[in-house]
Amino acid sequence: MSTFFSILDAVRPDRPRTRNAENPEATRRSDVLLSVSNITKRFKTSRHDTMALQDISLDINQGEFICVVGPSGCGKSTLLNLIAGLDDPTSGQLVFDGKRVEGSGADRVVVFQEAALYPWLNVRANVEFGLKIKGTPRSERKDIVDRYLELVNLTKFDKAFVHELLGGMKQRVQLARALAVEPRMLLMDEPFAALDAQTRDVLQQELQEIWARTRATIFFITHNVREAALLGDRVFVMTPGPGRIKAEITVGLRRPRDPDTHAVVDFAAEIRSALQNDEYTGRGQEGNFAI
Amino acid sequence: MLSSETAQLWLSTAFSLKNFGRVFRIVRLIAFYAGLILLWHLVYKAEIWPSYVLPGPRPVFDQVWRYIDNGILFDSVYATMQRMFIGFGLAFVIGMSIGIANATIRWLDETLGGLVHGMQSLPSITWLPLAILWFGLSQTAIIFVVVMGSLFAIAISARDGVRNIPVLQRRTAQVFGASKLQTIRYVTLPGMLPSIAGGLKLGWSFSWRSLMAGELIFVTAGLGHLLDLGRQLNNISLVMGIMIMIMIVIIGLGADLLLFWPLENWVRHRWGLAAA
Ligand SMILES: Nc1ncnc2c1ncn2[C@@H]1O[C@H](COP(=O)(O)OP(=O)(O)O)[C@@H](O)[C@H]1O
Ligand SMILES: [Mg+2]
Predict the structure, then answer these.
(1) DSSP A27
(2) What are A's interface residues with B at a Cβ cutoff of 8 A?
(3) What is B57-270's CATH topology?
(4) Are β-strands A91-96 and A99-100 bridged in parallel, bridged antiparallel, or unpaired?
(5) Which pLDDT score, from 0 to 100, does residue A9 have?
(6) Global confidence as pTM
(7) Which one of B170, B176, B192, B273 makes the best mutation probe of the A interface by having the most chain A beta carbons within 10 Å?
(8) Which ipTM was obtained for this model?
(9) Given this model, what pLDDT does residue A11 score?
(10) Planar angle of CA A167, A60, A284, nearest 5 degrees
């Protein structure tokens, strides 16, 4: 099995090449954008004392698409919040772009699962929101918003209000709003989990294309192993709470990927077995898996 | 915050009679009041009570006309509405600030929040003696009473309105690096509107009641004062006429139609039917 993965891994350099065409610097594998070291997060209230994350360490490189899978309640959102700077770790540290993470900022933007759009603003104004906060001059905002509305295929709906949009469209608005501020890293917390299967398929394809075009670094949480295999360069598999990383799987497949190809299905199966098996110790010879 | 498009929406929804169903309802309403006046006239004609107890519609309308003609009625309506808008406006600003502060600062909510709930249980007219002792028989005293009438209802609904904003909407502002002020301006203020209309209406009606009571008791000018004048002059037609005028002022110029209905309509337009 592990030779199978190393063969696929050998195919991997293919991916950076397509994206290197535009900016070779951005995708050099050794460029660490985020470094998480020995993170612990404990929620202590008068009634509960929850160990949410235990000893998490990982590095994320510039331009990578990282997926995180794990059972619900294992601390995925907690980890994302720490990276976003919405919360502080109990111990350990996060270094983003060479600086210690302290608080949130438009260089790490989050796309939530739902209900994060502003109902009193129309689609255009929602996408404009981050730019307004950032202080981008009004004259520049319109062009930027137009560009990102086009990127997510919502140009025709720019005057619509949130309650008039379908679930998939809402997620596209969130995506456009996040990308509009040109973050270094896009954090996505189960963004497609509430969508029907068909809409999810479409958005997964669109996200692959958008990622290829924008060269964003993406940290993507999901509990859908097929989604992880389809989208991720590397997939981190977490244990049930307290969350630890029990496996790291490198998905060395060419892009764009098709969810129905055997290779993707096989990777999905591999991720699932890592997820389900308590004694999972798969350790690739090339370092495909690590505990 | 309000674009011209929004302003247009306010105007067109507040005044348009496009809808046939609404025209019908208005005609029916007019017929109802015409019937009521006719009934009053018939009861008067039956001479069950002497005319100094129950005057007919005619002398009452004559009185109203006299006070319209000599300008006193308009001056009174003006004086009353001025107190109402100044007092309610102050209560709105102070109440919103208290509400937002209570919603965002936990220790404040646990201290001041409880006091606000306690104060709200006081009938607003109970502020009147205090107002007179503090400010004398003055405009300030009456405005104080109006403010106290609606302040707490507004503060409570403002606090709840902020609390009802979905967590992720506030967190989104944080994600984009919004400052505290930016969060209040771009998220808290607009986001609380759906829940605040009820509190504004409640506050408005409390303020109105305490204003009438206050004018009745001690302040010159205003509709309440005119009512008291009628009593002093033993002029029952004037008293009844002014009471009718007060109802008309409330229903016609009243809060529901001009102030709050457009707000509710705006909310329905933005949030969808579910919210309103
Ligand atoms: N603010 C909080 N206060 C207390 N406990 C929390 C808080 N946030 C998360 N938790 C707990 O931490 C654990 C991990 O939660 P979360 O990160 O949301 O899981 P996931 O996103 O993987 O489903 C859960 O047991 C949850 O109850
Ligand atoms: Mg979660």
Answers:
(1) G
(2) 84, 86, 104-106, 108-110, 112, 114-121, 129-130, 132-134, 161, 163-164, 181
(3) MetI-like fold (1.10.3720)
(4) antiparallel
(5) 41
(6) 0.78
(7) B176
(8) 0.82
(9) 40
(10) 105
